[in-house]
Amino acid sequence: MMDDLCDRVKQTARQAGADLVGIASIDRFDHAPPEVHPRSIFSHTQSVIAVGCRMVRGALKTAEEGLYWGAYNCDSYQYINEVLAPHLLRRIVLLLEDQGYTAVPIHNPFHPHTGRPVHPGATSPDGIISLRVIGCAAGLGELGVSKLFLTPQFGPRQRMYAVLTDAVLPADPLLTEPVCDECGACVRACPAGAMESERSVEVLIGDRVFSHGPLDIAKCTHVHQGWNPAYSPFLEPDSSRENPPSYYRFLERRFRHQSICVARGCVRACLDHLEKIGRLEYTFRTPMIEGKQWVLPEFED
């Protein structure tokens, strides 16, 4: 019976627009700190359903060519996070509710632990769980050096979401074949210098260790949002956070997100390498990176 429900969950997710779906049993989170454990959000969680939606490759390619940023901010942030994911998560939740199970959709992003515990021993709301770790626990992929979630289908080119449920569903096996080959392209190409190549951060899932390198969030955010003039064609001499360029204001107003780096190292360089060595299931006629990645002329060596 539960095998049948598991199949229906996966079929529903794919029909609603998911590209990836896998299931983790709650015991795979036995080593998780209480504040990031699935039960810090839903105390009766028995299974965690991981769902992945691919980012449109062309949105990455046009930024790689330095020609068009709108598709990435619209499709790979606003649309996936605020339109597609809520729709498909709700479809999964309603399917489980129809069978008498409680299910909780986990969207992206979070604004975690900003409240006070409402009773002794509880964690602070809102709770947070790592959607990348959930993807690993559900057998869909692994962590790259960059800390991004990598899958055999898309490499780093997806965003992850989850459903927590009290249904006891059969768990999928963990990924056995690595996606990352430790090439270091992500670290070398990161314009912020925000990553390190040594996998010094470890996560224990079941009996397997997943790991990634340290990530300097402050360095990443500065360049991600377009404040390094070598990698943003939109900055003017008088630009500042108090006086942002008109394009930044447009992005925030229209798409509620401002990505100018467009994951130059962690996604684009990684994806390019994995595609060129034949590591991924999806292949394309046009390479992600052709020649040297651009930097504005006044900052070239």
Question: How is this structure best described in words?
Answer:
The chain is α+β, with helices and mostly antiparallel strands and 301 residues long. The protein has one domain. The chain has 8 helices and 8 strands; from the N terminus they run αββααβαβββαββααα. The strands form 3 sheets. Strands 1-2-6-3 form a 4-stranded antiparallel β-sheet, with helices on both faces. The chain has a two-stranded antiparallel sheet with strand order 4-5. The chain has a two-stranded antiparallel sheet with strand order 7-8. A hairpin with a 5-residue loop joins strand 4 and strand 5. The termini are far apart.
Short overview:
With 301 residues, this protein is an alpha+beta fold.
Name a few traits of the molecule:
301 residues, alpha+beta, two-stranded antiparallel sheet, 8 helices, 8 strands, globular
